Amino acid sequence: MSLFSSLFKFGSQNIAIDLGTANTLVYVEGQGVVLNEPSVVAIETINGVKKVKAVGDDAKMMMGKTPDSIEAIRPLRDGVIADIEVAEQMIKYFITKVNGKKSMFNPPEITICVPSGATSVERRAIRDAASNAGASQVYLIVEPMAAAIGAGMPVTEPIGSMVVDIGGGTTEVAVLSLRGLAYTTSVRTGGDKMDEALVSYVRRHHNLLIGETTAERIKKDFGVARPPADGVGQTIQIKGRDLVNGVPKEISINQAQIAEAMAEPISTIVEGVRIALENTAPELAADIVDQGIVLTGGGAMVEGLDAHMRDETGLPVTVAEDPLSCVAIGTGRAMEEPVYRTILQTA
Ligand SMILES: Nc1ncnc2c1ncn2[C@@H]1O[C@H](COP(=O)(O)OP(=O)(O)OP(=O)(O)O)[C@@H](O)[C@H]1O
Ligand SMILES: [Mg+2]
Fold first, then answer.
1. pLDDT in tens, 325-337
2. Residue 23: CB within 6 Å of ligand 1?
3. What family does the entry list (predicted)?
4. What ligand 1 atom has the least distance to the C-alpha of 24?
């Protein structure tokens, strides 16, 4: 890039956004992923007037611990925008955070990913949120395509490959070939459902109420997709509130029980993969037998999930490098590299 064009570029670095249910990642042209924060906004209401109090990391710390006047909101549920105004505020905040004030005078082009199963109304909501947040032009890319590009899969070649992106809200299963989606299905089950399953297991079996944040921590640190080899695994202590007498209490739980608690959402995910395999054209299916299935998204990091899926499908299954960043990296590369141009959608 010449000095002139790099100076010119200085004002309007284009950005790519992975607007996730759990985390939002921002990729800046020429720089890569520069921001990765929870998709959470804390709203304070004073005398009936709502004001953004905190966004991202700062807001997540407040979740479950806010006084009555502050509400920590996750504007996305099941991978789509549930609260449009709050989502817009969040996107605006993140854009300003990476681009500073210059985005106001020289608005960037924004490439943003959408779940493959998003309805036209949901796509419109995401597009509007990005343009209201200050984009000069908005491009959309379907999430599993972005995940596959980010995972380094051969999406432009005439080779079938399967990606399974297990996010917070949704799991997207897709078969890709020649820049297109040959088959896609989206299951509204992901990491959040695993957290909820843990909350309800502990409530049912121990009369103990735990928060979503606690459940998520247990899942990340001790969650397993299948019972440990010794039938028990590690035993941990969990603190929460006793449902019978309302006081704080502590119980212990082992990894076999955690696996049991998480079994249902995990089998829903495996079922989605099975349905996709059944619906894949024979030539592409043959490629998948060779190439295997690649897992992306935070949910791919549940211990033993790859091995479990290997057992259930009989196919090679691998976890992508840096599964939490694949979608953002893929969205960014699709924005930057001309070979992916035709994949981007303007409507
Ligand atoms: N080490 C880990 N083990 C298990 N789960 C994890 C781990 N790290 C993150 N997760 C889970 O991954 C999920 C977030 O993944 P990701 O950031 O890919 O989702 P997202 O893109 O925000 O959601 P979606 O794609 O559904 O909109 C959360 O449910 C989180 O708890
Ligand atoms: Mg995602």
1. 999 999 999 999 9
2. yes
3. Belongs to the FtsA/MreB family.
4. 22
Query: What residues have a C-beta under 5 A from ligand 2, the ion?
Result: 20, 167, 327
In this predicted structure, what is the pLDDT of residue 103? 63
Four-way CATH pick for 146-189+263-323: 3.40.50.720, 3.40.630.10, 3.40.50.360, 3.30.420.40? 3.30.420.40
Ligand 1: residue of 17, 18, 23 to mutate (most ligand atoms within 8 A of CB) is 23
Give per-residue pLDDT as tens, 91-128. 989 988 998 766 667 789 999 999 888 889 889 988 99
Nearest CA to ligand 1 atom 9: 298
Architecture in CATH of 10-39+74-143+327-343: 2-Layer Sandwich (3.30)
Q: What is the pLDDT of residue 1?
A: 45
Does residue 297 carry a pLDDT above 70?
yes
Of all atoms in ligand 1, which is nearest to the CA of residue 297? 18
**pLDDT score of 6:** 45
Query: Are 91 and 108 spatial neighbours (Cβ–Cβ below 8 Å)?
Result: no
219 Cβ below 6 A of ligand 1? yes
Whose Cα sits closest to atom 10 in ligand 1?
298
Task: Kindly report the number of other CB atoms within 10 A of residue 87's CB atom.
Answer: 27
pLDDT at 65: 75
Give the amino acid at 166: I
